[in-house]
Design brief:
single chain; 629 residues; mainly alpha; 76% helix
Length: 629
């Protein structure tokens, strides 16, 4: 767009904003909306008119009102009240059909659990476990069927129960990202467990006893899980039904809506944990009328706030029901490769480029590389079945699968170094490909030219990681600035592996410190991602990780069907680790590219010469092609 057209299109809005910024009493919502649009216009002007007066004007306009604007909107108490009296009820009104769906599905799961227990008395052993059933049988014989609630110290029980409830509800919400399927799996698992549990006590003539004890805290706890399920369905619908937005944009919108609902549930989880830890344990001495009163009051609070009150608020402010969701304008940033980058710039540019090209990288990965990795993993499990029959940690599984230490074999070395080479070729090809070229045809051409040398590089890296002593690996970290140059030299300078290896030492020393710093940061990123997969913390945080979550779901689905369910768990975990390594190696490959170009710029100053060629060519009155470089 020409600058004159840009100004003509937006000048009324800017004038309105300038007028409002000079007043003391304004509608904060209108000012905030205009301020957001002004900052987006400023971002656009910075991109396309960096040396024009319109950019200076918009920058001054935004800066001049920034402080006063947020001073007007700083209303902590009012914001909190608005969250509970308007934001949450309106979100529940928008999600009312999702809430109904979650309630009906959870109720169906309860019925399935009850019917299964009715026709198969041993079903409870499969769902709750033999140990829990035997312990409960002993409590029933002693006349204290719900005695489990009084066996643990109150404060510790409160913390464990509350964190566990939040964990279950969070996963019910977060797994909605998988087209709502994960949310339904969580609700199905918990619903069957509840129905089976209650019907088991019914068969023993203790239905009323168990109901009045469990639902003292269960009214808040179970209701909150159903509401979290509604939030998960809301999230998943953003992926299934993106409307006119991209799926990523739609997911961002529905994630914000779902998080609003989830935040509102936190107090109810705390109350449920308190009741279960400090009140339910006294179920035997409490009158039935008191227990029933607590249950009814709890259900009334939940039903009123999450079902009835949203309709009241919707009728009071009908103009706020419909959401005006507008994606933020994010200007495309052109990466300048021939540039000297410090550690921070390598980090930010790496993740920007990774997000920008994630679609193409993922298409190649899941179409060609991932199937190869799965076949290789299946072969390893078939040839080494006895190793995977037991519950293994992430470290133990990775050692057995990837062939380190006593698990080392030739076919694992060849296979995984082959997969690693494909991963590196994938990233280097995508960032160097022409958009007009067919993605997959171009990738295979790239493999024909570069794959053998890249395979030799990954074989070298695999040898170091798999067979070198730990102290030697620590020493080789200091050689990482040289090693990281090899794949980039193979691709950018079209060298074979041997010449790239030799040239890496002369090139790597140019930006040694920054390259080593970048490697250290990405090593930290590796451990952060690893902890997200398998949490190293114990206690109440032990199951707050992806692997534990998947293991629990897969175990529930396989333990009653397959004798070798533990092998299935380990195989599923291996798939997760392969995807994890895909992300890590993709990020590493991009950082290697930036380190290479930074070192090469110090040596050749190619980028500097290109900028000098354009020096003085910019026109101060009209935009030229140079302005858009």
């Amino acid at each position: 767009m020409k600058e004159t057209s840009f100004i003509k299109q937006n000048k009324k809005k800017w004038a309105r904003f300038e007028k409002l910024s000079g007043r003391k009493n304004n509608d904060p919502d209108e000012v905030s909306k205009l301020f957001t649009e002004i900052t987006e216009d400023l971002s656009y002007a910075r991109t396309f008119y960096p040396r024009r007066s319109v950019r200076v004007y918009l920058n001054q306009l935004a800066q001049g009102v920034f402080t006063s604007l947020y001073k007007q909107r700083k209303q902590p108490l009012g914001s909190v009240l608005k969250f509970w009296t308007e934001s949450v009820p309106l979100e529940m009104y928008r999600a009312r059909y999702n809430l109904l769906t979650a309630f009906l599905f959870f109720s169906l799961a309860i019925i399935i659990g009850a019917v299964s227990q009715e026709y198969n008395p041993e079903f409870v052993n499969l769902i709750l476990g033999d140990y829990y059933v035997e312990a409960t049988e002993e409590r029933i014989a002693k006349g204290d069927p719900m005695g489990v609630y009084g066996e643990m110290q109150q404060t510790g029980m409160f913390l464990n129960i509350t964190m566990n409830n939040i964990r279950v509800a969070f996963f019910a919400f977060a797994l909605g990202i998988f087209a709502t399927i994960g949310t339904y799996v969580i609700m199905l698992s918990n619903g069957i467990m509840l129905g089976c549990f209650q019907w088991w006590f019914k068969a023993k003539g203790l239905l009323l006893t168990s109901f009045l004890a469990v639902w003292i805290h269960g009214a808040f706890e179970i209701s909150s899980i159903i509401i979290a399920g509604a939030a998960g369905i809301t999230l998943g619908n953003g992926f299934l039904f993106p409307r006119s937005f991209s799926r990523v944009q739609s997911l961002i919108f529905t994630a914000k809506r779902g998080l609003t609902i989830m935040l509102s549930l936190v107090p109810f989880f705390i109350i449920a944990g308190f009741l279960e830890s400090f009140v339910t344990r006294h179920y035997q001495v409490m009158p039935n009328a008191l227990k029933l009163s607590i249950i009814l009051v709890s259900f009334f609070i939940i039903i009123f706030y999450y079902v009835i009150y949203p309709f009241i608020v919707a009728r009071r402010v009908p103009h706020k029901i419909a959401l005006k969701e507008v994606p933020r304008y994010v200007p495309d940033r052109k990466i300048e490769w021939h540039k000297i980058r410090k550690t921070g710039e390598v980090f930010t540019d790496t993740f920007y480029l990774f997000i920008k090209h994630i679609s193409k990288i993922s298409r190649i990965f899941f179409t060609f590389i991932f199937p190869v990795a799965i076949v290789l993993a299946w072969l390893i499990f078939a040839l080494d079945t006895s190793t995977f029959r037991y519950d293994l940690t992430m470290f133990e599984t990775m050692r057995a699968v990837f062939g380190t230490g006593e698990y080392a074999t030739l076919y694992k070395f060849i296979g995984w170094s082959f997969v690693m080479a494909l991963l590196f070729c994938n990233v280097f090809y995508v960032i160097n490909t022409d958009d007009d070229e067919s993605l997959f045809a171009g990738f295979f051409k790239f493999l024909l030219r570069r794959f053998v040398w890249m395979w030799m590089f990954t074989a070298l890296v695999y040898t170091v990681l798999a067979f070198a002593p730990f102290y030697l690996i620590l020493l080789l970290i200091f050689a990482s600035p040289f090693i990281s140059m090899i794949p980039a030299i193979i691709v950018q300078e079209k060298k074979d592996f041997f010449r790239a290896f030799i040239n890496s030492f002369s090139l790597g020393k140019g930006a040694y410190g920054d390259s080593l710093g970048s490697f250290a940061i990405f090593l930290l990123i590796f451990f952060i991602f690893k902890f997200a997969l398998e949490n190293p913390l114990g206690g109440i945080f032990s199951e707050f990780d992806l692997v534990s979550l998947v293991d629990n779901i897969v175990k529930d689905l396989t333990i009653t069907v397959f004798d070798n369910y533990q092998q299935i768990l380990n195989f599923i975990n291996t798939i997760i680790y392969v995807i994890f390594l895909f992300v890590i190696f993709s990020v590493y490959a991009l950082s290697f590219s930036f380190s290479y170009f930074s070192s090469n710029e110090m040596k050749t100053a190619k980028g500097l010469y290109n900028r000098l060629d354009k020096f003085g060519r910019r026109n101060k009155q009209f935009e030229t092609e140079v302005d858009y470089d």
